[in-house]
Amino acid sequence: MHVPGWLDDTRTSYDTVAVSYADLLRDALAREPFQRGIFALFAELIRAQGNGPVADIGCGPGRITAHLHNIGLDVLGIDLSPVMIEVARRDHPGLRFDVGSMTRLELADNCLTGLLAWFSLIHVPDDEVPTVLAEFHRVLRPGGVVLLGFQAGDVSQLKTEGYGGHPMNVYVHRRPPDRITAWLDAAGFTVEAEMVHRPAPNVEGGFVFAHR
Asked: What is the fold of 6-211?
């Protein structure tokens, strides 16, 4: 699906909801044992590669970035939304957060041991995903680990409000795990594991681990 202007729409939408988003999800991870377990596995895989820098791409207000820091990773957060980054810096002043786009990361080649994109690919149109994954491949060093979290399914829907009723204008793209793994294969990654989590009726999240 091609969505003209999706980057500007995503930036504006998340600038609008940033404060409410942070407040609503601040303690959500405490209620998500599956997610915490997945992050623990991610951290173990990073340590097996000798540690090194990790980037949380699409970090929002930094709640997952902070969790990864707390479990021992050297992590920075990057987000398209300047207001999200302001909130992240306010809430987690000891950590590094940068404004940036996953379509063109301001990071050196082969500089990361790990990369997390946690439900941040869901607004990227299908025809832009190869560009994003090529950037992920570029910044990871050989053996580096990528973890993708996404909404599973096979439909795209326009989201016009959220997080307290604020206006938004973003498409949410739900994708089956096998499509994500095919894109990763095409980008030069080796997929190691995939799973589907069903936290509630008719709600599915997909998780994929791969390495460069």
From this structure: Rossmann fold (3.40.50)
